[in-house]
Specification:
Structural class: alpha/beta
Largest sheet: 4 strands, parallel
CATH superfamily of the largest domain: NAD(P)-binding Rossmann-like Domain
Shape: elongated
Oligomer: single chain
Mean pLDDT: 92
CATH class of the largest domain: Alpha Beta
CATH topology of the largest domain: Rossmann fold
Strand content: 5-15%
């Protein structure tokens, strides 16, 4: 880890960040200047004024996504604020460009006030074809996304919720296939009811299964989750809830799952230990305890649940197909496409390589009006 940290610092210092802005048009002579700027640009402004949809023809709006955060829930780091979140947002934008040719721009807001964030995003929305919310703490992230979906005419997605849920579902589809276990019979426990855990629970419920969260002292969002769950679901500690279950999905904290807990699950369980950078249980320990399939968020072990498999293609499809809202049905289809892209799944290969650039095309095919 120390070597990676040192190399990352050197790389960012050497390049001064990961992004730059390049002009698409030549600016070599007066004619070029007249066409790109004054006087020619006036005609473009007038056309857009007459028909606002032409902004997607004549400007960057047709292929540009805003990656927006307040820095309150940086993955694995917590609340470091907007300035410290900038390297993460830059990285996200670089991935958008590299894997889906989407021009993305990092925007870090110096406020955690829900209304201020909503208003600011609405004010800047005319520039963008989509809004990708990132690393905003729960429960504010739920309200921010809900309101923006209602009040904007471009697609809005909180990637920590829905990008994660798409990749998790894709992995589970292949894991259940390998285990020859139907989604109707599978018993699932989800540990962690933050942004990702909430979205995964809703997503699996929509798809056909659900987990077993606690019910006492819940926020409105968690109460909504509890209402989705079978009232006969087990209650108690994590170990008690795992007794006789088939699937553990953790989006919580390091080392909360033990080998003894896995041994109390049904034979050869499926373990998704997704806490970053350190999972709920080390993969080697889970394997020794009898786990059949193990997935984590890490790139140094098989079955990495990485949002890069979802968000570039989701927005590529939304932009190309003029999708107004990225619905649960579209995301389910994206997850099914992602799972089907793995032609010969195995316990060590239930998801595609995150560096496979064909994945975004497969996902984009699912995101259609």
């Amino acid at each position: 880890m120390e070597d990676i940290d040192k190399e990352a610092l050197e790389l960012h210092k050497r390049y001064g960040g990961k992004l730059t802005v390049n002009s698409k048009v030549p600016l070599k002579n007066r004619q070029d200047l007249s066409l790109a700027y004054t006087p020619g640009v006036a005609a473009v402004c007038q056309e857009i004024f007459k028909d606002r949809d032409l902004a997607k023809v004549y400007t960057i709006k047709k292929n540009t996504v805003a990656v927006i955060t307040d820095g309150s829930a940086i993955l694995g780091l917590g609340n470091l604020g907007p300035l410290a979140a900038l390297p993460v947002m830059e990285g996200k934008c670089a991935l958008f460009k590299e894997f889906a040719d989407v021009d993305a721009f990092p925007i870090c807001l110096n406020t955690e006030d829900t209304e201020a964030i909503i208003d600011t995003i609405k004010y800047i929305a005319p520039v963008f074809g989509g809004i990708n919310l990132e690393d905003i703490s729960a429960p504010r992230c739920f309200e921010i996304e809900r309101r923006l979906k209602e009040e904007l005419d471009i697609p809005v997605m909180h990637d920590d919720q829905h990008g994660t849920a798409v990749v998790v579902l894709a992995g589970l589809i292949n894991a259940l296939l390998l285990k020859n276990l139907s989604k109707e019979k599978a018993r699932v426990v989800i540990n962690g009811a933050g942004a990702a855990g909430t979205a995964i629970t809703k997503f699996l419920n929509f798809y056909g299964r659900a987990g077993a969260p606690r019910r006492a002292g819940l926020s409105p969002e968690k109460k909504e989750l509890a209402e989705m769950i079978d009232q006969n679901s087990p209650r108690g500690t994590l170990g008690e809830c795992l007794l006789g279950t088939d699937i553990f999905i953790g989006v919580s904290a390091r080392d909360v799952l033990t080998a003894e807990m896995i041994k109390q699950m049904n034979p050869e369980p499926i373990i998704f230990a997704l806490a970053n950078p350190y999972p709920e249980i080390a993969p080697v320990l889970a394997k020794r305890a009898g786990a059949f399939i193990i997935a984590t968020g890490r790139s140094d072990v098989p079955n990495q649940v990485n949002n890069i498999l979802a968000f570039p293609g989701i927005f590529r499809g939304a932009l190309d197909n003029n999708v107004r809202e990225i619905t649960a049905s579209l995301l389910i289809k994206a997850a099914e496409n992602l799972a089907a892209y793995v032609k010969n799944p195995s316990p060590e290969f239930i998801l595609p390589d995150p560096l496979d650039k064909e994945v975004a095309k497969v996902i984009a095919m699912a995101i259609k009006s």
